[in-house]
Amino acid sequence: MWSLVGLGALIVIGGIVVADAYRQSFHVYQDVKGIPDQLARARDSLSKGQVPTGQPDPLTAATTIAQTAQADIDNADFTFALVGRIPFLNRPVQAIRSGVEAANQEARAASMLKDMVVDVLGPQALTGKSAPADGGQAPIFHNGTVDVQLLQSLIPKLEQVVSHLQSGDAAIRAIPTIPFVHQIADLKTKALGESSQAVALATKTLSGVKLLPSFLGADRPKTYFLAMQNNTDQRATGGAVLGYGFVTIDHGKMRFDGGGSINAIDNPLGYPQATLPEALSWYLQHIPLQHSRIANSNWSPDFPTAARGWSSLLRAATGQQIDGVIALDPYAIAAMMGNQRMHIPFFSFPITKRNLVQVVENQQYTLPTSEQVEFPRILIQKAWPIVSNPHPFLATIKSFQTALAEKHLQIWSADEADQQLLARLKWDGAIHTNQGDYLYLTDNKLTANKVDYYTRLSANYRVNIAASGAITSRYQVQMTNQTPPNLPKNIAGSNRYGVNNAVLSLYVPGRAIPTEIPPGLPPHVEGPVKVFSRKVSVVPGSPLQLDFGYRVPRVIFPTSQGRVYQLTIQHQPMVHPVELTVTVTLPKGSVPKTAGPGWTVNENGATFHAVLSKDLVTQLVF
């Protein structure tokens, strides 16, 4: 009897101990459950170049709560520590410890980022403004010079930020599941999503800060070829190079060394002595009447390949050895203009961000021939001060990031280490494949006109998934030429009016097996992908459709959520981005589980629609 009484007493005491530990855990949880929202607000402000504001500001509030919670844990009653050592029963205690540790780590990272924002943008960041008070200058950039020493000083600080964020992410992942307490699981899922994004953003920022000092001439002066591409004369990386410049950067100070129409340094018959990458040579070998010219040798959408080709051609044409290429088109210049204006003597109105694309890609070709010849030189001279000394600074940097994402701005470095960082940042405009399926449609103009301004491409991609994980694909692309009548020959062409002669190329997974490919150019391999190409001729008012059929094995892969169809889509920057519709049919008996943004799910599959202004990766889980 006494044994039973003793056992009962132990159970009661044990229950009291566990209950007290859980009470303390719940008390701390009640205090800290608002921290993720406070940190999210702080991160949002910091990403805009603003120090979080408020009374108190969210960063200060989150830091104070996390520190108080950690003190509560450190000074908790013995029951908290005791239950924390008992398997299974210790889960609420472990959850609180891990959650508070994650909050402390992320608060430290955010505090360091706050200090760096002030270092980079100056005291005005403390006022909550997103731009320097003078509209253009900041400690990181003043008098047309980037402070490379300041950039270099940020590297060890950002490495600490990444370390804190990674520790916080690990702490969140260590939070155990607690039966019947779904709020903890929901909070963990939300916190993990935000933590993963924060780690990825901080890591990307660190890569950018490591790249920039070298790219900006911290070790020695660097000379870059400035390639002005024009989307109305399509090439795979964006457009033919119709204007050029050379830029030297020495310890962050940028100097324009002159430029103008590409015809000033190019040869219409090309430079046969130049050695081009194989991916470019393939097109020259298979398409008649094409030459290895600077203006239009960028047949491959892989920008590093095109840039290496330009480097070789420039050596042959000018003897100039370049350290890299900066390619931009009118959309990039417009994005960087802000509220600034350019005055070009051939036009009676000022050129602004709203009309620059129309002027450069269309209206300039209505000018007399002598003025058209001068226009690229004047445009580059007028645009350079805007590009090299942006106003306002932070807003222009954001436009710069958008231009990179949309490939209106692409960068290549001859320095292998810098190029690896560019690739990590996805600033290089390269072909980037992933596990699963892959699509990249390119349009290369064959004749000297500017009707791509009036041309539109749309595509329907149909995928049938087999039980084995292979897919059978049909890609249908329609090219519509809407060139109006009565245009000058510089736009409509000097031969057949308005005709768009081009090569359409479809880049697909390298293991693709063609089943129905339009006759013409043979398939070829470029790096990790296979390429199907076809020459087309599209006259105004008569749309043309091409069908590409092929099979790809081993596309579907398993995950803990289910089988996954993942599609990577890359895009060519165009006047009118490609409109793509994807229709996926699942194996018999399969049903969709989850799908990414843009998908519409039905009984046996799903459809996806996008206007391809950016590269994207999307998934369908079934």
Task: Describe it.
There is one protein chain. By secondary structure, the chain is α+β, with helices and mostly antiparallel strands. The chain has three domains: 2-215, no CATH class; 222-425; 437-621, Immunoglobulin-like (Sandwich). It is 39% helix and 24% strand. It contains 15 helices and 22 strands. It has helices spanning 2-32, 35-47, 58-74, 78-83, 91-121, 148-173, 182-215, 278-286, 303-318, 330-337, 356-361, 369-388, 393-405, 416-425, 489-492; strands spanning 141-142, 145-146, 222-230, 240-250, 253-261, 324-328, 409-413, 437-445, 455-465, 471-481, 500-509, 513-516, 524-526, 529-538, 544-552, 557-559, 562-570, 579-585, 594-595, 599-602, 605-611, 616-621. Strands 8, 11, 13, 14, 16, 17, 19 and 22 form an eight-stranded mixed beta sheet that branches. Strand 1 and strand 2 (145-146) form a beta hairpin. Helix 1 runs parallel beside helix 5 (91-121), helix 2 (35-47) runs antiparallel to helix 3 and helix 7 (182-215) runs antiparallel to helix 14. The longest helix is centred in the first third of the chain and has 34 residues, at 182-215. The termini are far apart.
